[in-house]
User: What shape does this take?
Amino acid sequence: MHPNPHTSDYNLTTAKELLFVGFEKGFDGNISNFPHQSSEYQYAVENNSFLAFLWLGKRVGELATYNLPYAVLCDLDWLISNHYHLAQQMAAHPDLCSVPLVVFTQKGKPANKTALAANGVDDCYTVPVDWQMLENRLEFLNQFKPRVLETSTRVKLESFRFHIPLAKRIFDVVGATLGILLTAWVWLPVMVAIWIESKGPAVYKSKRVGSGYQVFEFFKFRSMHLGAAEQLIGMHHLNQYQNGAVNGKPIFVKIARDPRITRVGRFIRKYSIDELPQLVNVLRGDMSLVGNRPLPIYEAEALTRDEWSARFLAPAGITGLWQISKRGQPDMTAEERIRLDIAYSQAKYSVLADLKIALKTFFVFVQKEDV
Assistant: This one.
């Protein structure tokens, strides 16, 4: 049994506290492998917006008993039926605004991500969701959300996101359109070749973190066998970015002669053909032609230190300073890569500078190293 938040003997502890709200039939069917007996977590359940906010308020109302909740997990249908009232209350509170708010929706019920973001919701999952994946996401949110809010006390949150200058956006749209038109004849043969060698989707989609820690869907031609992410677990010793690790974990991952790469994948990587679908990301506004590489969530998690998070002030890009400086070189450290990203983010924007980087990129299309 979980502690009852309404009893007077409900003791605050150092455990990570979770609040489940709006799950009238219980939340077990929404999260698989939830650690009910774990001493690391305590949780409470509410189905009333007023009582939920009262529970949250008690945790931050007194300095002597202050214990900021770890996360609020909410049923999306319930939240909408209550007109986002709880989310809005949390967003307006000086302490609770930094608590991650994650909602759950049923299969076949698309979520309005614009409305969710506008009301302070941090993420939305279609149920059932695996606890391990959710736990990793909550850890990430607890690291970077307070930093974003700290920044917003000095400047408005909107300024944390990179506002693409009109000249850069025109450069992006024109360049991406020309790129697609000039390479259109390659796309279909590449997709067919990928499918013939390794059955499965020809276009690989993954969640990436870009400017202002914004998460978007990232496109590439698939160059690895299916299940490559699971195979990575036993290959960390091959990572060329071992130096610059945080808590024993490398920040970036890149493996020379990676055995997970298919024969077609090795060819399209050699000539950077696998990057072509990112031109669609540019047209959608997710990325720019030139910027800092968008990172997988597990890499972005390690870059929440103040001096490192500055790289996220620049737009995500297909190419950038790192790509044309020491791309793939085994002696390149994670810190060198971060410094190049930060240098771009802090430089005054110039169309000419972007054009120079884009032109230099052509000289590294044929990579000497096998990465």
Summary: The longest strand covers residues 203-209.
